[in-house]
């Protein structure tokens, strides 16, 4: 299961989120709640793609795993 969770306590403005796969931290990213859901999901996507985890998955796929 993939989970995106806010990790700071600020209820307005810029917030910090984590993307988790099961219990493994994939990445963190910042998002301003006023920017909306589409921007939120795009930032999550960008953060995952830039993470070391994404590099690991690409390397495993190239090995046939």
Would you kindly provide a written description of the structure presented here, covering whatever features stand out?
With 65 residues, this protein is an alpha+beta fold. It is built from two helices and three strands, in the order βββαα. The protein has helices spanning 37-50, 52-62; strands at 2-6, 14-21, 24-32. It has a three-stranded antiparallel β-sheet with strand order 1-2-3. Strand 2 and strand 3 (24-32) form a beta hairpin. The chain starts with a strand and ends with a helix.
Key traits:
alpha+beta, 34% strand, 65 residues, single chain
Mean pLDDT: 86
* Distance N to C terminus: 20 Å
Helical stretch count? 2
Strand order of the largest sheet: 1-2-3
Structural class of the helix and strand makeup? alpha+beta
The largest sheet is: 3 strands, antiparallel
Tally of DSSP β-strands: 3
Radius of gyration: 13 Å
Question: Helices and strands, in N-to-C order?
Answer: EEEHH
Q: Helix share of residues?
A: 25-40%
Low-confidence stretches: none
**What is the overall silhouette?**
globular
Strand-residue fraction? 25-35%
